Amino acid sequence: MILTSLIQQLKTQFEQSLPFVIYRKPQCSSIEALLQQNDVLYQVNDYSESGFVMAPYSGMPVLIPLDKATSLSAEYTTEKQLQNSSVAYTVNESAKILHEQLVTKGIAAIESGAFEKVVLSRAEMIEIESFDWTDVFFSMLDLYPTAFAYCFYHPKVGMWLGAFGEQLVRYSKGQLNTMAVAGTQLFQENVDPVWGEKEKQEQQLVTDFILDGLRKYSSKIEQSAPYSVSAGRLWHIRTDIQAQIEENQLKNIIEFLHPTPAVCGFPKASAHKFILENEDYDRAYYAGFLGELNMDQSTDLFVNLRCMQVVDRHQVVLYVGGGITADSNPEKEWQETVHKAQTMKMVL
Fold first, then answer.
1. Is 301:283 a contact under the CB 8 Å cutoff?
2. Residue 307 contacts residue 344 (beta carbons within 8 Å)
3. Among the four 10, 50, 231, 232, which has the fewest Cβ within 10 Å?
4. Cβ–Cβ under 8 Å, residues 299 and 24
5. Contacts (Cβ under 8 Å, ≥6 apart) of 15
6. Rg (Cα) of the chain, in Å, rounded?
7. Does 267 sit behind a cis peptide bond, omega within 30 degrees of 0 on the bond before it?
């Protein structure tokens, strides 16, 4: 399909307040879209459904069902690579103080034995002259050619956009793939990252959590050695994990994995409780997951991390966070959220 025709159909869909999603998977040259034929808010019940799922950090996942939508696709080749550069940042002192206080409280809870790790986040409102989702979406494609990039709209959910590479789960024909990603360091051209014990420990907690959980469902599990991966202007540590599982276990595995320690903490229950009691805002779909569910018997889900929520034509909300351990430094944790916010600010 011609790209301009696809975009025009999506704009008409938006004008009619009908749900849609447009996305590009990592390493793909095609853009996929689903245009829902009504404005019903469908939900996922048992993960046997087929369509595009959008799950919040906490709550019921919503679905654009394949049988209630028109499927479109178009080829897209990045013609002009956008410069991956830094963005000028003015420090919001009150936000900085609040986040550092939250991190300090998290460290104190870790030292008291409440949990080993907690992921603490914040929301940042951005004022813009005029928001055009098509411009932002294609900027994400050009700036992050290897990421999963998307724009999701439902009149009863709102509009969300993001670009990121962390896979929650990929499942096809008995094989499940996932990854453990944690640790953050600012990207520098031609400089390999050197990881400290804090980052290594944080990533190992995520890896151990996933491996321990998968052993309940599979005796055939393989993992890679930890390695560094770049995402925009950031480095992370990643371990790839594969397992052989039965299809009827997919629902259990998704519910076990989400939220992972990479977006919540460990042990999960106590870290999750701390987040709900202390972050003082609703994460909504930030740190949830989204992607293709059971489409042609292949499920491909990603963690919704580098993302933004559109409030109106002049305001968007960015969501950023970081993993806190006993070795965390509140000032450095604030700076980490600043670096992560730049990922989305570069496309605005």
1. no
2. yes
3. 50
4. no
5. none
6. 19
7. yes
Asked whether 345 and 206 are in contact (CB, 8 A), the reply is no
DSSP codes joined into one string, 271-307: HHHHHHHHS-S--TTTT-EEEEEEETTEEEEEE--SE
Range of 7-21, 125-139, 199-213, 234-248 with top mean pLDDT: 7-21
Tens-place pLDDT, residues 19-59:
999 999 988 889 999 999 999 999 999 899 999 999 999 99
**How many angstroms separate the most distant Cα atoms in the chain?**
59
pLDDT of the residue at 246? 86
Looking at residue 188, the DSSP 8-state letter turns out to be: B
d(CA 324, CA 327): 8
Task: Indicate the helix (H) or strand (E) that contains 236.
Answer: strand 234-244
Statement: residue 87 has pLDDT above 70: no
What stretches of 9-114 adopt beta strand conformation (E)? 20-24, 30-36, 42-43, 51-55, 62-65, 69-75
Pull the structure tokens for residue 254.
Answer: 């998704």
- Name the packing angle between helices 197-214 and 250-257 (round to 10°): 160
- The predicted model gives 244-261 an average pLDDT of 90
Rounded distance, CA 180 to CA 163, Å? 18
The number of angstroms, rounded, from the C-alpha of 217 to the middle of its chain's C-alpha atoms is: 25
283 versus 130: the higher-pLDDT residue is 283
**Omega before 259 within 30 of 0, i.e. cis:** yes
Per-residue burial over 233-251, b = 16 or more CB atoms within 10 Å of its CB, e = otherwise: bbbbbbbbbbbebebebbe
| Residue 99 identity (one-letter amino acid) | H
